[in-house]
Amino acid sequence: MTTISAVSVFCGSRVGGHPAYRAAAEEFGMLLAARGIRLVYGGGGIGLMGVLADAVLAGGGQVTGVIPEFLVEHEVEKRDVTDLIVVDSMHARKTRMFDLADGCVVLPGGLGTLDEAIEVITWKQLRLHDKPVVVVNTDGFWEPFMALVEAVVAGGFAHTAVRDLFTMVDRIDQVLPALEAAPEPNPEVLTSHL
What we know:
By secondary structure, this protein is α/β, with parallel strands linked by helices. It has one domain: 3-Layer(aba) Sandwich (Rossmann fold), CATH 3.40.50.450. 39% of the residues lie in helices and 16% in strands. The chain is globular, with a radius of gyration of 16 Å.
């Protein structure tokens, strides 16, 4: 069982087109604050990122934002966070967010969120880490992603155990139990084709 004291959350710089996305970000932020779990996120003050950070702060929680220098103006960095770390690239952002957390959570978001999710899952496949990764399928948002993973397996490009590199949940109250109970990566995910 993994002990979670800080969680890295990847989510949209927009709020999205369904009220459930904002509600999930608010609920997760309140839950993190109530449990004393530090939020590590992309540092923006807009979209689901801003909603999530605001909810953690409103609940008295701790928030670390990590934002690339070139996005400071575009994403209107959130200055009232506990810590704001400015890095030099998107890759440095992902790496720093990952390093500061005990696990990763993916809420709805755009291409950047998808990129972040794929990268931390790929790092796990390559056995660069064994941290839990949880994808929150709010209102079925990530079902196409799961279908793509299944297509990769069906096409013979991945071992069936890639499904276990992350856990998909439907509700916010399932996130922390899923993080804490995530299975260890199966070595066959990497070695089955070698």
